[in-house]
């Protein structure tokens, strides 16, 4: 058994079709929808975690692709909303990778290096004004 | 040569006052010496911006037709309970109250995403806020229900009134236990995994006037981006905390109760915050001008981070159990370097109060004074200090026996 997380993008003509449902029925996969935003007549996005036999997962992915669904590996993006950030530095000692750091110890000004961020989300809740956002 | 506040105000009015912030004064004194600096500088500005739980606001929402008496009934603002124990249409909202349906810490650690502090921020930001009132009805106030949007601009009065702000120094918090703990000083990692502090240090108002010589009841201050006043000493005001020779209190000491017109404030400086596992609080910006009346007062304002000492306290045991043990003392220069040593271990530090914002406040106040928009005031009465000041006591618990 293995699990994999991915981002699905549905073209607008496929919205409303039971494409995802087939994953259970035809490929014996279980899935967990982590995030979904589907607006009628527009593209739809879904973050999905697929669980099941590796070979079946590959078949399931092929089925989705055949249906015109675009598949990308899950990449969460962490962003700091600097308008909300109070520059308190509370996140600095929480972040395990120094992605959040004080760039100038004289002025105590904060900075964020997305290159270093591993999207562990440990910083999200300890930020008092909730200025750190997870974007999918 | 001593100056008076009236003389300084004359200089401010004519645009000639020399105003610097509490960081700049350090270098000026180092270069020119105390005597010369005291002659040249008229005002030193201070600032602080951190969570201040004992904050709140009261307002008068105006009478309805027919009239309703919220007083003695129940009221909600954006689903957050507000205090309705005053007259008909006066309400008080405290910063720390969570929304009515908040699960609190039932699933630990709770989020505390929205509460009184956020309502206050929304009001200040000019957003519409939903007011719901349930009243019991009287002959003179017959109405029993009200469900209406309100906006700060339509309120008769909206006043920020905080019973304890601007702590003179604070603890540096660590966690000796082997699990993460969630406190008002932030998330503390197990086995002294981090250390959190909460003071603007050399910029902090009360650390720059440690015996409250120039500031007191009636002093005009910069509050939340608007104008406020020191109303009283804050709750838990404790001038008896141990002091260094320079007057600096080594433990949490003096506090201020402050008041000001909420309508004039800015959501940048009145900001709702959520401490995971702890609760809601309000970040409040405060700036206090210190008139340089003589060399002694100037000397206090020239205090620097390396001369301010705080206690390192374990928040997994000593703090919650009211034990006075500390794990050591450390100065703010070291704290702000990003790493301190506790029990032989190198520990990364984080702030809870924002130094950068404190500097911005001190600079904003400085500019207002320079432009003649902010005049200094004589205090009306002193804050308690010295032997006659009341002591800060714990509760002398007298358990109530069953059946009494
Ligand atoms: S998500 Fe993790 S790695 Fe990224 S900034 Fe937050 S704590 Fe650091
Ligand atoms: S904890 Fe939040 S508010 Fe504080 S510095 Fe980090 S991002 Fe900014």
Biggest interface and its residues per chain?
A-B, 20 and 35 residues
Task: Quote the distance from N terminus to C terminus of chain A.
Answer: 25 Å
Oligomeric state of the chains in view: heterodimer
User: For the residues shown, what is the average pLDDT of chain A?
Assistant: 85
Radius of gyration of chain A: 19 Å
Uncertain runs of chain B with pLDDT below 50, 5 residues or more?
none
Number of domains of chain A: 2
Which architecture of the largest domain in chain A does the CATH hierarchy give at level 2?
2-Layer Sandwich
Instruction: Write out the strand line-up for the largest beta sheet of chain A, numbering strands in chain order.
Output: 2-3-1-4
Q: Helices and strands of chain A: which structural class?
A: alpha+beta
The CATH homologous superfamily of the largest domain in chain A corresponds to: ACT domain
Strand content of chain B: 25-35%
Class derived from helix and strand content of chain B: alpha+beta
Bound molecules: iron/sulfur cluster
Overall number of structural domains of chain B: 1
What about the largest sheet of chain A? Answer: 4 strands, antiparallel
């Amino acid at each position: 058994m293995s699990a994999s997380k991915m981002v699905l993008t549905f073209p607008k003509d496929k919205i409303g079709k039971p494409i995802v449902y087939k994953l259970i029925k035809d490929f014996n996969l279980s899935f967990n929808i982590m995030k979904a935003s589907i607006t009628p007549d527009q593209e739809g996005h879904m973050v999905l975690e697929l669980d099941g036999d590796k070979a079946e997962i590959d078949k399931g992915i092929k089925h989705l692709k055949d249906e015109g669904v675009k598949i990308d590996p899950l990449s969460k993006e962490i962003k700091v909303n600097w308008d909300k950030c109070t520059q308190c530095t509370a996140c600095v000692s929480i972040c395990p990778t120094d992605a959040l750091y004080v760039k100038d110890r004289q002025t105590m000004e904060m900075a964020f290096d997305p290159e270093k961020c591993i999207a562990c989300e440990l910083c999200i809740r300890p930020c008092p004004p909730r200025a750190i956002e997870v974007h999918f | 040569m001593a100056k008076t506040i009236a003389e300084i105000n004359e200089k401010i009015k004519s645009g000639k006052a020399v105003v610097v912030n509490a960081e700049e004064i350090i270098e000026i004194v180092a270069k020119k010496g105390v005597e010369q600096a005291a002659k040249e500088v008229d005002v030193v500005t201070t600032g602080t911006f951190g969570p201040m739980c004992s904050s709140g606001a009261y307002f008068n929402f105006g009478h309805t037709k027919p009239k309703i008496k919220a007083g003695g009934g129940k009221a909600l603002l954006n689903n957050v309970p507000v205090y309705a124990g005053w007259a008909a249409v006066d309400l008080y909202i405290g910063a720390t109250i969570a929304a009515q349906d908040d699960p609190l810490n039932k699933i630990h650690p709770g989020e505390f995403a929205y509460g009184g502090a956020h309502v206050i921020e929304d009001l200040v930001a000019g957003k519409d806020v939903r007011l719901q009132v349930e009243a019991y009805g009287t002959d003179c106030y017959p109405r029993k229900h009200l469900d209406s949007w309100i906006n700060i601009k339509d309120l008769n009065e909206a006043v920020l009134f905080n019973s304890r702000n601007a702590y003179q120094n604070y603890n540096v918090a660590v966690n000796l236990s082997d699990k993460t703990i969630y406190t008002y000083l932030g998330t503390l990692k197990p086995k002294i995994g981090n250390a959190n502090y909460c003071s603007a240090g050399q910029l902090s108002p009360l650390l720059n006037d440690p015996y409250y010589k120039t500031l007191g009841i009636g002093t005009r201050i910069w509050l939340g981006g608007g104008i406020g006043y020191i109303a009283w000493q804050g709750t838990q005001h404790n001038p008896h905390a141990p002091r260094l020779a320079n007057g600096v209190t080594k433990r949490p000491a003096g506090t201020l109760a402050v008041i000001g017109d909420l309508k004039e404030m800015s959501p940048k400086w009145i900001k709702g915050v959520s401490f995971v596992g702890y609760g809601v609080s309000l970040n409040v910006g405060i700036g206090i001008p210190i008139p340089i009346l003589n060399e002694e007062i100037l000397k206090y304002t020239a205090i620097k981070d390396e001369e301010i000492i705080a206690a390192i306290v374990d928040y997994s045991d000593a703090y919650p159990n009211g034990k006075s043990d500390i794990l050591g003392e450390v100065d703010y220069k070291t704290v702000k370097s990003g790493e301190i040593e506790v029990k032989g271990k190198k520990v990364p530090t984080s702030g809870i109060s924002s130094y950068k914002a404190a500097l911005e406040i001190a600079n904003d106040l400085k500019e207002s004074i320079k432009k003649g928009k902010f005049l200094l005031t004589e205090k009306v009465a002193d804050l308690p200090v010295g032997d006659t000041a009341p002591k800060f006591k714990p509760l002398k618990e007298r358990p109530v026996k069953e059946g009494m």
